């Protein structure tokens, strides 16, 4: 099983980024895929989840209305569209499925 994140970078406050998580090694028609982040010196914070079969989405209050999680089943990829970014969104963002984690991608929001 592999989860490979990409799309992180440096962005100004108010800007946007789209993270991608390419998956392999398991059936993509699977209950839940999630994004989790870890800010500097902080613990893990759940950000968003999607049920790939029923396509229900769930968001943390801190990102509700600004972030959108989605999937492309043909590409076996999960996305996180992040708009109106704030400095407090600075973190390493991880893709998660069950006990599997990607290596993370750094998002830095700074002017």
Helix content: under 10%
Tell me the series of helices and strands, N- to C-terminal: EEEEEEEEEEE
The percentage of residues in β strands lies in over 45%
What is the total tally of β strands?
11
Task: Describe this protein's structure.
- The protein is mostly beta strands.
- It is built from no helices and 11 strands.
- The strands form 2 sheets. Strands 2, 4, 5, 6, 9, 10 and 11 form a 7-stranded mixed β-sheet that branches. Strands 1-3-8-7 form a 4-stranded antiparallel β-sheet, with no helix packed on it.
- The mean pLDDT is 94.
Question: Key terms for this structure?
Answer:
111 residues, 0% helix, globular
Q: In summary, what is this structure?
A:
This protein has 111 residues and is mostly beta strands. It has strands at 2-6, 9-11, 17-24, 33-38, 44-51, 56-59, 67-72, 77-82, 91-97, 100-101, 105-109. It is 0% helix and 54% strand.
Layout: helices, strands, pairs:
Layout: E1 2-6, E2 9-11, E3 17-24, E4 33-38, E5 44-51, E6 56-59, E7 67-72, E8 77-82, E9 91-97, E10 100-101, E11 105-109
Parallel strand pairs: 2-11
Antiparallel strand pairs: 1-3, 3-8, 4-5, 4-9, 5-6, 7-8, 9-10, 9-11
């Amino acid at each position: 099983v592999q989860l490979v994140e990409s799309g992180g970078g440096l962005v100004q406050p108010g800007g946007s980024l789209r993270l991608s998580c390419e998956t392999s090694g398991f059936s993509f028609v699977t209950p839940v895929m999630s994004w989790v982040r870890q800010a500097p010196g902080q613990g893990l914070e759940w950000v968003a989840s999607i049920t790939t079969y029923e396509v229900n989405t769930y968001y943390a209050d801190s990102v509700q209305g600004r972030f959108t999680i989605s999937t492309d089943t043909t590409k076996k990829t999960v996305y996180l569209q992040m708009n109106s970014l704030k400095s407090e969104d600075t973190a390493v963002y991880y893709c998660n499925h069950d006990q599997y984690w990607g290596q993370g991608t750094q998002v830095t929001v700074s002017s």
